[in-house]
Structure formats: structure tokens, C-alpha cells
Amino acid sequence: MNKNCEKYENELYDLAELFKIFGDSTRIKMLFVLCESEVCVANLAEALDMTQSAISHQLKILKQSKLVKTRREGKSIIYSIADDHVRSIIKIGMEHIEE
Fold first, then answer.
1. Domains within the chain, CATH numbers bracketed
2. Which terminus, N or C, of the chain has the lesser number of Cβ atoms within 10 Å?
3. What confidence tens digit (pLDDT) does each residue in 20-68 have?
4. Contact between residue 40 and residue 47 where contact means Cβ atoms under 8 Å apart
5. HEC states along the chain?
């Protein structure tokens, strides 16, 4: 194995796991919507024509992967993109496929 790969083996594994998260079209759609604005589960479910249960399941994965964050607004939980890195990944991916 290349010495550089050995040096970064753990990081490369984590990077592959990150890209697995991006490898699901439902999660990509959710991230795309969240890049535009913060939303609650109900609004995200409506926007993607999915059940709230299905949306919640995917949001849990995105939150565990540190791709989305939450804040409470009254009784609602509002979801948003975790940081500009996530926006950049989506943007660069879109630019790449549009070439």
C-alpha cells in the first residue's frame, strides 16, 4: 500500500463512509432542499412527497453524520445544513455532473 494511504487509512475510511451517506438519492434530495432553507420534518416530507417517518429516519442518519443540525422552535424541531462544507460538496457535485 502507498505510504500516504497508510498514513491516512482511518481518514480515508471515514471519507468513504461520508460518501456512502451522499450515495442515497433521498438523502441528496433532502440536503438539496436544506441548502435552500431550514425546514421542519413535516415541510420536508411535503416537499419530497414522503412520509414523516421516512424523512425522520433519513434525518437521523444525516444528523449522526454531522451533515445537518437542529434547533428547537416552540414544539418543532427545525433542520438545517450543518455548515458550509456540506453546501460546497453539493454545489461541487452539481457542477461536476453538469459539465
1. 3-97 (1.10.10.10)
2. C
3. 999 999 999 999 999 999 999 999 999 999 999 999 999 999 999 999 9
4. no
5. CCHHHHHCHHHHHHHHHHHHHHCCHHHHHHHHHHHHCCEEHHHHHHHHCCCHHHHHHHHHHHHHCCCEEEEEECCEEEEEECCHHHHHHHHHHHHHHCC
Best CA proximity match to 28, nearest among 97, 99, 78: 97
Amino acid at 58: Q
CA–CA separation, 30 vs 39, rounded Å?
A: 10
Q: What is the pTM assigned to this prediction?
A: 0.89
| Whole-number percent of the chain with pLDDT over 90 | 91
CA distance 55 to 72: 17
Residue 65: phi and psi, rounded to 5, are -85, 5
Look up residue 56 and give its three cell numbers.
425522520
What is the grid cell recorded at 67? Answer: 451533515
